[in-house]
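Support request, please re-run this one:
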Amino acid sequence: MNKKHIIAAATALFVAAAVAGCGNGHKTAEENTFVYGTVAYGTAMENAGTNPHESYVGWSTIRYGIGETLFRFDENMRLVPWLAEGFEQTDEYTVKITVKDNAVFSNGNKVTGAAVKACLEDLLAKHDRAPKDLKIDSVTADGQTVTIHSSEKVPALLNYLSDPYGCIIDVEAGEHDRIVVGTGPYKAVKVTDTQIDLVRNENYWGEVKPSLDKIIVKSIPDGDTLTMAMQNGELDAAQGLPYSSLELFKQDEAKYKLSQTDTSRVYQAAFNYKTPELQDRRIRQAISMAVDKEAFTKVLLSGNGTPAVGPFPAALPFGDETVRAVPYDLGGAKKLLAEAGYSDTDGDGYVDKDGKNLELNYLTYTSRQELPLLAEAVQFSLSKIGIKLNVNATDNYKAFLKNGDYDIFAKAIVTAPTGDPEYYFTGHIVPGAVDNAGFYDSPQIAAMERELHNTYGAAARSALAIKMSQQILDDCALFYASHLRMTFVMKPNIEGFTAHPSDYYEIRPELKKANS
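Re-run finished. Output below.
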């Protein structure tokens, strides 16, 4: 055979072997890669990276299968062991946790009591919210046990430890190129502000082993771009698609399937108590009464949510069915403005007082597609009662928050990610809370929070949470627009990718691509 024939024969043999390999069920690297597009990753959400001890980065650590917590939540938001085998509440200030003997980090190191101790101490030293939540003053370790002592009663300690910042990482291994060593089914190999590349954790300790070779998580904040990427087959799954686009995927059941669940993520707006006009409760109440939540949810969200009364959804025992808010009433809102001394004296369509129009600055961000829609709805609603609203929708919102350049700040927040109401109050409502953007300072709230913080038992804690939510609504300190229904869209061969009510646990070991 001449050289040309030899090359041709070898090429044919290679092609035949490749085809035979596919026929035998072997997948190529591309076939065994899961590409996921999401609006929920990036600097605007403060979760770019993998280190759970920074800001809200833990959400990425736990969402994308890099890290796990000592306890987790099941589909009914009940607390169950994860890295932990169990626990013992030795007294009101102390809990002893036993770590599973087979748990290991992705680098092969065993997860011991000492490793958990080191991780928690690093968390307390670096994180902004964790020390205030956990109140830990000492951690000791002995073999597979870790004993946590808090400086005061923390009835929801295990719930707080299940927050994404509670992901257990190997702090001795350090952080390199924004990559930490966790215990999850996948490990990060490349991290940027817009993408995380993951590979299978060959040392995964769980019963279900990860089957995918590689996962690519892409930040795609633009809804149209995300839609096109899903339609073009560039993505295996997507989260955060525009509501107008969801119908396209719902109608094509042969090419796509969906996973949906109601969550405790709420779209809320806080009134800035430093704004003189908003120190008048009548003004805050008038604005709250002018917001048409039903229209916002049904029209702008295309039914992908539930109109909110308070911070928690009705499915929770301390949720919407237990509290009441001011009704939607444009006439009543106008009457309140008149009582506060505002009327349209110059006929320009806006109410004024002492020669000054009632004009307010509304701050929000764009990385959550629902927030600009809410801004549009509120702006339109307030124009009906004569209030001029200037909207600033920017992912650089933190600079404006820092400078106090806003009168109303709207955001999306998961209010009960730990299955307990105290998380929301301590982080967003009590005086001095890290995310109390409105500077709301209620002595009643502060007193009830002190009581809640020292109360054990779900029923008693729920009763207090209801009172606190009602106080917020009575003060018109914030208004709540809608609770979100989260939707994943995926190719039909994707299995084990389901939405969870906590808004965590996206990439799990069960995730796989079915054989074609």
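The radius of gyration is 26 Å. Confidence is low (pLDDT under 50) at residues 1-25.
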